[in-house]
């Protein structure tokens, strides 16, 4: 999808709400309000820490420096592109390089990698003519006017095939010997699940596939059968209650914010305090800047009372040949993670919404057995044409834009309606995902959840534990870059 379609600028009303949310957080953390800390327009910038020309070995371990991806290919033909199955009806030209002057693109003078995957795709120099694709965004297929369903599915095939071939070393000829487990979050609609199953069974060559819910995988991975699972992802936070190994669908909530939004809030806070160097940092249009902000967030952000500053190196990735950096003191690093509790301080960037009704489907892939035969896969685009005429029903997942994580947890647990189960769930709130390891988050949630439970509910205790999610998030966190020169 073209980045020009992205609405990454906060409206005046959003900015006003964000500043009010900052002041609420500041009063709780016992730090000055935003207008008390921001320098005036006529006030000189605060002194910087000075430029750093060389890094010590200790600094190099903790700083946020990345190197640009080398896009040149030493081999004439990429093993990934030669082994990746391509639908005969797909637009192959979008997946292959072409030279405008008619020369051989694989000549010695012009050898580029056909495709680049994962974090390497996020560190491609901007001068290189690659098209960056994110097939999944905010917990759904990233379909838009500029990113068709066919291309989303093709990119998913390509990413999964690369993982299987290059990372797991499973030869395509041997995949019929394997079965696949597709671990999915609650955000995906039924038809999205069917399309992904089609890729796994038809395009990747697995003989059997099982759909498993991510909340159950997280609970089982941590040795639990009953828990309120809170999965804080990069772009979506999911809350769902599990009872005796069964996810309760009416308790599932999706919150449209996650770790990436906290990282962008960190940049906004520093710019408000005028502590950020005069770099053209743009985490929306430059993925490598988002990687830098994520690393700073993971290294320094935590929830604690009082002023919380840290000195770190901030890098400029404006020019791939001369990357600048500056040592600077960052302020109020405890404010951004509080956005999980006060999401109005987070302003998610937005694409034009995809046609949501397209995904809704009568069949529930996570509850009923699903039987198929080869005739179901006759659709030319690799999808399931026979399902287009099915009646549409509302999705089962409740979505809330502006409620905080505490309110979502309490609402999810109370929706079970049984006091014995509620007591168990309040004492087993499991935080998973990368942001769940934020220092201070678990005790703050524990206290606030207990204080938010209505007084007429006989609940006296709440316990929050943080775990690392024992499920790979490669699909939702990684990207594919296709060469378009």
From TrEMBL:
Residues 53-109 are annotated as: Disordered. It comes from the Eukaryota. Residues 60-76 have a biased composition (Basic and acidic residues). CDD domains: ASKHA_NBD_Arp8-like. Belongs to the actin family. This is Actin-related protein 9. The lineage of its organism: Eukaryota, Viridiplantae, Streptophyta, Embryophyta, Tracheophyta.
